[in-house]
Amino acid sequence: MLRLEDQSIQLCDRMPRRSFMQIGGLAMGGLSLPQVLRAQEQSGKKSSHKAVIMIFLAGGPPHQDMFDLKPNAPDEIRGEFKPINTNVPGIQISELMPRVASMMDKFSIIRSLVGAEGRHDSFECCTGHHFRSAQPQGGWPALGSALSKVKGPVNPTVPPYIDLSHTMAHNPWNIKGPGFLGLEHAPFRPDGRVMENMTLNSISNTRLYERSNLLNNLDRFRRVSETGLTDGTYDGYTKQALEVLSSSRLVEALDLEKEDPKIRARYGKDSPKVLNYSLDKGYQAIMSRFLLARRAVEAGARCVTCSFAHFDWHGDNFGHARKVVPLLDQGVAALIEDLHERGMDKDVTVLVWGEFGRTPKINKNAGRDHWPHVHAALMAGGGMKTGQVIGSTNRLGEEAVDRPVHMQEVFATLYHNLGIDVASTTIEDNNGRPQYLIDEQTPIRELV
């Protein structure tokens, strides 16, 4: 365990520490960061930087009002929105999504998604597994945690799995973690105390002076440690741990002040009060998270997750949709345009979906209720064949009638795009048993 020791140092809480910092403090579960890095190195060889950005629409977005409109259905089914043409002949989507419509050639829509269990939970969207399936001890890991284990970090100073979501009041919606893989493969969440430690928020001159002293001591320690690194006192994993401590790569990636103002403006303004009940519940429309996702991938993240707003509209479905869906349209369109302009579209797969769909029939409160029978997803990038619609539903949007696509097929496609063969790749659970990443091992043939 590497320690930084100085009797004279006081931290911001004014309590002296003989061992005020140790590399193990960056990890969880008692593991030191060098141990984490060593485990990641042993878990799999590094490859080209393929990545996934998953945008989770908590609550179940109404597929009939976004991607699968039914204009010829009865009034109590079709709703208030009209379909509009896209730049791909024959494909129509909601009038609330004109930006995505104008670049539909860069997207694919899955209208016949099946396999949802109907629970308000991000579990299936994060792991690809059913709740009711037998889980190994510790539980199934999320996609990002599996990538952390199988592929390791792209850059030793950037976590492979980053979650940009707000903490949501309904806990099951929060993005899932490492399961049986352990906390060393948990998502890095740059909010709360983490962001407070990365930014200067209302810091007094005294506290700023103390932090300056801390940085000076870190600089002094690094100069001393470099001697140990060059003479072989420390191993390569400790060197990587020191790089994490001293690198500004991730901090800069999360600093939007370093982004071109024109690019920032394209993504739109954050709307934390988009819904009158969302501000203190984590159901906010933070447009900048789409941009942060791109920047995090550029910095070296393999998987970035981000929740957006809230879609559990049992009442006033259409009023809420008019506020939320245009913002989603702007953010997603800006992200895909940005990835294409930067030449990242072949490597980065973007997935936009929620845990299930909504009832075809509008209820007495002008809302739509839970509907696990079928829902929709939007996919882009990853070198996939885009500009198409996969599957269809019946005239009321109740059931998949053509080409049902299981949620696990989506995961098989994600892993395929990441260069992982799910038919042969396994990870060991807590009992040492090899576990396949998912059960369904066939990618969506229309996309790959």
Describe the secondary structure blueprint for this structure.
Blueprint (H helix, E strand, L loop, with lengths): L2 E3 L13 E4 L10 H11 L7 E6 L18 H4 L4 E3 L6 E3 L3 H5 L4 E8 L8 H5 L15 H9 L9 E3 L29 H6 L6 H26 L5 H11 L2 H5 L7 H7 L20 H12 L3 E5 L9 H25 L6 E6 L3 E2 L11 E2 L3 E7 L6 E3 L1 E2 L6 E3 L2 E2 H11 L8 E3 L5 E3 L12
Parallel strand pairs: 3-8, 3-9, 6-13, 6-16, 7-8
Antiparallel strand pairs: 1-2, 4-5, 6-12, 9-12, 10-11, 14-15, 17-18
Helix pairs in contact: 1-5, 1-8, 11-12
Organism: Gimesia alba
Protein name: DUF1501 domain-containing protein
Give a verbal description of the structure.
Mean pLDDT is 85; it is low at 1-30. This protein is globular. It has 448 residues and is an alpha/beta fold. It contains 13 helices and 18 strands. Helices cover 31% and strands 15% of the residues. Strand 14 and strand 15 form a beta hairpin. Strands 3, 6, 7, 8, 9, 12, 13 and 16 form an eight-stranded mixed sheet that branches. A two-stranded antiparallel ribbon has the order 1-2. A two-stranded antiparallel ribbon has the order 4-5. It has a single domain, classed as Alkaline Phosphatase, subunit A (3-Layer(aba) Sandwich), CATH 3.40.720.10. Helix 1 packs across helix 5, helix 1 (33-43) packs across helix 8 and helix 11 (288-299) packs parallel to helix 12.
